[in-house]
Specification:
By secondary structure, this protein is mainly alpha-helical. The chain is about 45% helix and about 0% strand.
């Protein structure tokens, strides 16, 4: 069997040509609940895995909550 691999010429690509995963939007309620669980369990990684979140996102939410900058309930 012969396999043919095609390589994309990245020099001719623009930002719009690249296949990207759309950025997720989360409700303020989910963020608040995730942050509370992270405080209770004291494990950002475990809670992020349970909720299907990127660990960095939950870490940022916890940091914002500590600074009092997490979106209030009802906000997007």
């Amino acid at each position: 069997m012969n396999f043919v691999f095609q390589r994309k010429d990245r020099h001719n690509e623009t930002k719009n040509d690249v296949n990207r995963i759309p950025q997720q939007e989360y409700t303020a309620e989910l963020k608040e609940q995730a942050v509370k669980r992270a405080y209770d369990v004291r494990s950002i990684g475990r809670i992020a895995d349970e909720l299907g979140l990127v660990k960095r996102a939950l870490r940022n939410w916890v940091k914002a909550a500590k600074a009092g900058e997490l979106n209030p309930a009802g906000a997007k």
